[in-house]
Amino acid sequence: LESGKRGAGVGPPLRLALPLLHASFCFYTAAVGAFGVLASKTRMQSTLTPDASNPTPAGGRTPLKAFYEKGASGCEKLRALAAEGVAAKWKDIGSTHGIERWVRRLAGEPLQTKGRVFFPAKDGLGPAQILDYIWDESTKKEYDPEYEQGFRVADYPEENQTAVKVLYQAYKTPGLGIPGRDFIILTARQDRQQDGGRSRATMSVQSVDWSEELTNTSKHHWRGKAMLCGFDCESLPDGGVQVTYIEQIDACGSIPEWLQRQGKIRHLDMLNTIKTNVVNKY
After folding, report:
1. SS3 231
2. pLDDT per residue over 87-106, tens digit each?
3. CA-to-CA distance for 95 and 102, rounded, in angstroms?
């Protein structure tokens, strides 16, 4: 109600009740807002928890087999993406710091980025050694400047030449006033021997639902989606190794497209840091 003449026409009982009504409305608004945030957070939590004790459980729980299948499929797709070139609509955006870089945008999908770095034969490294460094999540902060925090959610034994684990990871804000993004990801690894005795090690990263609430996740990040990311390390006929990194992230929020593109391309620079760190380690 407006002040002045309109207020003068309100009787004492109603004037006394107005502050209470206003307070009640504010409390209701806050409660609805809090409930909306809680509901949103709940929706972002997963609906899937693998049952390791039963490969084909009943009652709607996801069999652990599904995690192995998802991880193996991700590794297979990464190997195919690593081999693709201009014919598959990848645009060469030039090299920097010894890293070859490409981008691709398919209709209705977030931007894909691809970077590649080479380890010469004189380094004496194989694909498995290089991927060992990346697979170890404790080294993440050493090479990824965007990474803030994370922990292992679940770990499972290798099966059918596929190792899988579930991780929580949070990344820094891409710009002033924009929350960082966090992810619950299924990370899978495959090590294979190819024709001619050459080896290949691949690691895929994909978001996965997780039904159990994780109490030690960040309260300041928004949940993003890793559609398909990862590394493919392949030995070459000359004894060297090429390492290809693929990334496709859905930020799940209103971040300007130009800012996302800039950040995703800049993220490829970590390949140079990985190369330096691995060479120094071994």
Report:
1. strand
2. 899 999 999 999 999 999 99
3. 9
